[in-house]
Structure formats: structure tokens, C-alpha cells
Amino acid sequence: MNHPFLALLHQLGLDLPNEMLWEALTHDSYAHEAGGRSNERLEFLGDAVLDLAVAELAFRRFPDRDEGELSKLRAVAVSRPVLAEVATGLRLGELLRLGKGAEEGGARRRPSVLASALEAVVGAAFLHHGYAKAYPLVEALLGRAVEEAATTSPDYKSLLQELAQARFGSLPRYEVVEEEGPDHRKVFVVRAAVPGGTALGRGRSKKEAEAAAAQRLYLQLTAGVEGRAEDAYPSDRDCR
């Protein structure tokens, strides 16, 4: 096994077969050009392992948080920007096998590619060692992100944009549907919409209302419920 792989495995505290690690670091562009298997299957597996491990981690660390709060923590901790940042710290981009076009297109630094590579590595760890080894690995990689998510307010507009691009191939749309009150105490109602659903948010400014709508829609979609989140019209307390 070459030196870069040894350094990576040392950082991760893992022992993986060379061929499995190569697969985890093989982008589909390389597999298409050179043949062989890409990391997409391991990415699929790793995505599920990350969801479970981070859910358990949040459950154990925050015994007083309810299901909704734990879901928010998990969603932020396994989001693409967080995974890409962790992958960058591990220098996974330098080890990726990319096709010529992907290389020239800057895929080595692309957040989606880096996040997928990290998921694939976690998938490989689970496949070779089982959950007993994968869980502490995820805790070491994302424990800090979970703690930070518990103490900071997530950027739901960014999270919704990432989700909409990945799931629907489009960006969220925001529309002011109502303005209430006098000019000095104006309240805005904004609808956020993606192909999978809509939600309303209220705020003292358009920006605040957009953020509230994005939060409601993001949590609706990540809870696995597609449709309209407008039946429970946002109340005044949403914009205090």
C-alpha cells in the first residue's frame, strides 16, 4: 500500500484492503474511462451508515432534545458542506481517481465529489469492519459538527438549496404572498417552493420570512413528507 493511503488510514484508525480503498476513492468518471467499479455503491452504503451513526451520536449526547431537534442536528451534521469540509481536512481530494474531463473541470475540489468520497470511505469501513468500528469513526469525524449544530442556528436557506439541487435538480423559489400591518411594523409572509413541496414563513423582513419558510420546507422534506406545509399557517410568534 502506498504512502498516501497509509497516512489516510492512520488518520482514520482503519485497516482496509487496498482494493476496497481504491474503490472508495474512484469517481465514476474514472471508472467510465478506465473500467472497473466506481465508489457509488460504497457511497450509497456510507450515506446510510452516516445517518444512523449521527442519529445515535446525537441521541446519546443530547438526552433532553426531542425528535425534531435531533433530526435538525443530524441534517446539519451530514450535510454536503460539512462532509466536504471533513473530506478536505483528510485530503481525500488529492487521492481521488478522476477521469480526464472531471479532473479538468475541477472535480477534485468540488464539494459534492468530496462529500461522496467521504461517504464511500465510511461505507468501506462499515463493510470491512462492521458498525462497531464505523460508529467511532463517524464520531471522530463528525462529533464536532454535531456539537456545533446543537449550539448554532443552521442556515436553512443553504441547506434547502443543497437539498433541492440534489433531489430535484432545481433551486428553491421564494415569493412574497402577503404583507401585513403598517409600514413601521410590517410583517411579510413568504412562500418557499421546490418541486417536492411548499411552505410559508413569516418575518419582520423579507429575508427573515424567507429563512422561516426555508426552515419549514427543509424540515418537511427531510422528514420524508412531500406536499404543502401551508395548512398550519405560521403564527405571529414565528416573527418575534
Would you mind describing this structure in some detail?
This protein starts with a helix and ends in an 11-residue tail after the last strand. By secondary structure, it is of the alpha+beta class. The protein is built from 12 helices and 4 strands; from the N terminus they run αααααααααααβββαβ. It has 2 domains: 3-151, Ribonuclease III domain (Ribonuclease iii, N-terminal Endonuclease Domain, Chain A); 156-231, Double Stranded RNA Binding Domain (2-Layer Sandwich), CATH 3.30.160.20. Strands 1-2-3-4 form a 4-stranded mixed β-sheet. β3, α12 (206-222) and β4 (227-229) form a beta-alpha-beta unit.
Task: Give the arrangement of secondary structure elements.
Blueprint: H1 3-12, H2 18-24, H3 28-34, H4 40-61, H5 67-77, H6 80-89, H7 92-95, H8 100-104, H9 111-129, H10 131-151, H11 156-168, E1 173-180, E2 187-194, E3 197-203, H12 206-222, E4 227-229
Parallel strand pairs: 3-4
Antiparallel strand pairs: 1-2, 2-3
Helix pairs in contact: 2-9, 4-5, 4-9, 4-10, 5-10, 6-9, 9-10, 11-12
CATH class wording of the largest domain: Mainly Alpha
Order of helices and strands: HHHHHHHHHHHEEEHE
Q: What structural class should be given to the helix and strand makeup?
A: alpha+beta
Query: Given the structure, what is the number of helices?
Result: 12
List the domain count as a whole number. 2
- Indicate the proportion of strand residues: 5-15%
Q: So, the CATH homologous superfamily of the largest domain?
A: Ribonuclease III domain
Could you say what the CATH topology of the largest domain is called?
Answer: Ribonuclease iii, N-terminal Endonuclease Domain, Chain A
Please tell me how large the radius of gyration is: 20 Å
Number of strands: 4
Distance between the termini: 58 Å
Name of the CATH architecture of the largest domain: Orthogonal Bundle
Give the rounded overall mean pLDDT: 87
The largest sheet has its strands arranged as: 1-2-3-4
Coarse shape: globular
The portion of residues assigned to helices is 55-70%
Low-confidence stretches: 225-233, 235-240
How would a textbook summarize the main sheet? 4 strands, mixed
